[in-house]
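Two folds, back to back.
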Amino acid sequence: MSAVALVPAVSALGHDLQKAGVVAVALLAAVAVLGAGRPRVERWSAVAMLLAVALTPVLLITDIWDSPQLRPLRHHPTAAIAAAAGAGAVVVVLAAVIYRHAHALALLAVAALPFRIPISSGGTTSNLLVPLYLVIAAGVLAHGARRLRGPALAPWPRARGLEWLLMGLVGLYAVQASYSSDFMRALEQVVFFYVPFALLFVLLCSLDWEPRLVVACLALAAALAVLLVGIGFLEYSRRELLLNPRVIASNQVESYFRVNSLFFDPNIYGRFLMAVMLGLTAGLLWSVRERTTWLLAATLALLLAGLLLSFSQSSLAALLLGLAVLAAVRFSVTWTLGLTGAALVAGVAAVALAPHAFHFDVGSSQSADRATSGRSRLIRGGVDLFADRPLQGWGSGAFIRQYRAHNQVSAAGAASASHTIPITVAAEQGVIGLAVYLALLAACLGRLFDRVRSSPQRLGVAAAFAALLLHTMLYADFLEDPLTWALLGIGTVLAWRQRAGLLPASGGLTASAPAAAPAGPAAPGSGAGGPA
């Protein structure tokens, strides 16, 4: 029986098998993360990664096999096989490059992070991180080839409390999908985000993040940000967006024009720019070369202009928090807290003195909705959902469906989340999921900020993560964003290198970029023939 014929056969076995499959891929991801860096189980970790890469697409296709989205593939199996063969060829070529030059994985991952490809099929369009998925699959293939040939030649970070909490939250999400009213959405979250990004985390942790590699990735991210801002300027000058009809429609009725460049959402566009700007700012604060200082300052000014045109309030707030973190560590905690407090008081006073300028009227819930772009209404709905089922929640991915049912709104009137991650977690996963989520946040901040003052490289990563965390509180997408996993992976290795005495105390953010790593003996933190 051919692979194409197997898919409808597996799909016909029903939701019980699919629910078991979701739990299975989550367990494979857990084995991959928790077993990485442990010589006795390292090969099992590599095998789990390979199995997860093989199983996740099958699980997704079996779930949507009968949907209109796959009608063209069902009617033209030859085209489907050809597309799969083409993707496989790309993965094999990239894997060969990564196997030979380990640091290429980091650069390829950074290059793929921002880009979502619109895939149209059966009258619907999905925006998927296809380039990043191909890089992850190639990295897993190269990683597996090395680990199955022999153990790593040098130690690298092992799983600790953070990794256990991370995969505990993913595993809990997979289990709670079994009673969700929107199982398909929960499945998509697992196979599109949690599992592949967990594999990305392992791959990044296996790299030797020496200062030159950090600089090379930051320079590449900055170049991409400048390119994306240029496209945003073009959109603004032409008053015409390239993507997302919902933003296009809102621009027709608002007094301002929001740009989103090649992103589907202006807030995700702003999040990417914000993270890059904080990395560049960390480099600027420790820069010792006048030419580098001016170059970084000019780039930051350009990116700030692009961020302002996105009109992303959450991204601007996150940027300010990240800058406050950098200022507190680099200069003075006391002065930073004082200035931040003064700015907050000034902001509250401005709203109180001129509420209409901010579309806000004290005591009016509708005004609060307008001032927060509808978020306050979504938050109230999420809190009500949590109060109705506080222990186990409504099930993974169930927020949008339950919000519609409880508030009697149409599909067009409901968002896909509360736009405040803790509320979404509480509503979907109950107090159990919320407790694991809060413990995970504490573990992440503890790892990234521990002794961070002595390392500008680590400070840049920590500030970006803190800003991203605030962005998730004001918007959405915590573990659904590959940037979260990338910052955690890089920050984990940098913290390990600092404990091992391998990280310079200063100047790391302005070092020269590396050439591709050779395939010879591995450096500390890498695997055989260079890390994957």
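---
second:
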Amino acid sequence: MALRFDTYRMKDGRTLLGEGYFNPIWRDLDTRLALLEEKKATFDAAVQALTEVGLVRINEVLAPSMSGLDEALAEVAAARVALAEALADAAAVFGEIVSRTVLDDALTTLQTGVNAQLTTLQTGVNAQLTTLQTGVNAQLTTLQTGVNAQLTTLQTGVDAQLETVYALAVAAL
């Protein structure tokens, strides 16, 4: 914003201190401060919009992974049920009790398969999370740079306004 000191300048013995002098100054200061406050509202809205975009992006990236995890868990549960049914059928067909060794071997085989699926799933999720984190960090860095620039601009404008008001107050005394 341009400085308007000459508009506010007082002259000893000539300037009448009354509403005709002060009201235009206060109107101008109020208008200039209102512009700064509008910029702050716009900035707050931009931060909110970026946060919403980030949350949507996180959901987009993690939803397929979570869906894959749910499917893998459902497959494991179904395999376990199928194994239990097969063991029960085997015991009924052969008329004998399935030995503890057979059950242990079946559970070990099942556990090995489940562990392999979970490891594969975890590797995929970790890779997607790393990619997401890198993107979010870049967006946050960009946002921080913009915020710092806006704050510096806002502070410079407020400092200039305060200096002008202070100069007016000193001059009025």
